[in-house]
Amino acid sequence: MATKVLDITKEHCPMTFVKTKIELSKLQTGDILEVLLAEGEPLDNVPRNAKEQGYNVLSIEHVEGTTHKVTIKK
Asked: What's the short name of a Pfam family annotated to this entry (predicted)?
């Protein structure tokens, strides 16, 4: 099982989930994607969209300032 980190803290919706979806498509089943993103719309949309696409959102954690980490299992 591999873990990949994707930093989209400078991105805005809808590119936040587009970039997340592209990275998830590169992973093998069971791999983990840790997504660093800003609070607000990205923090609301990325986990929700990941769940809607059938991925498992393992955790949502505050990292620092306005940055959060969403851990998604493919």
From this structure: TusA
pLDDT tens figures, 34-48: 999 999 999 999 999
28 φ/ψ angles, rounded to the nearest 5 degrees: -85, 155
Give the residues of the chain that fall short of pLDDT 50.
none
Q: Is 13 tagged catalytic?
A: yes
Q: What is the pTM of this model?
A: 0.94
Of 49, 51, 39, give the one whose Cα is nearest residue 14: 49
CA distances (Å), 34 to each of 22, 47, in order? 13, 11
Q: Please give the domain boundaries of the chain with CATH numbers for all domains.
A: 3-73 (3.30.110.40)
